[in-house]
Design goal:
82 residues, little secondary structure, two-stranded antiparallel ribbon, 2 strands
Length: 82
């Protein structure tokens, strides 16, 4: 089994709203990956503790580690638009 850096469903172009894979038609999570992986054209580097709505609140998943520039799997946008 090979280890693939960044090949999780979160970085895949086949991930659609609701964390559903449009290729396989199933709900997926952060740790899923497959051979149909298609890297998104761009990755956003602005997603870190400072831009997270949970930063320095009681909802933060890692309050002892959270710091500017740090990323985590529980990041949530401060504002969203459709």
């Amino acid at each position: 089994m090979s280890i693939r850096l960044g090949n999780s469903c979160i970085n895949c172009d086949n991930l659609v709203e609701g964390n559903v894979c449009k290729v396989h038609g199933v709900k997926v999570g952060n740790s899923y990956t497959c051979d149909s992986f298609e890297m998104k054209a761009t990755l956003k580097d602005k997603e870190n503790c400072v831009t997270c709505v949970r930063y320095e609140t009681s909802d933060c998943a890692n309050p002892q580690k959270a710091a500017p520039g740090m990323s985590c799997a529980h990041w949530a946008p401060q504002s969203a638009s459709a």
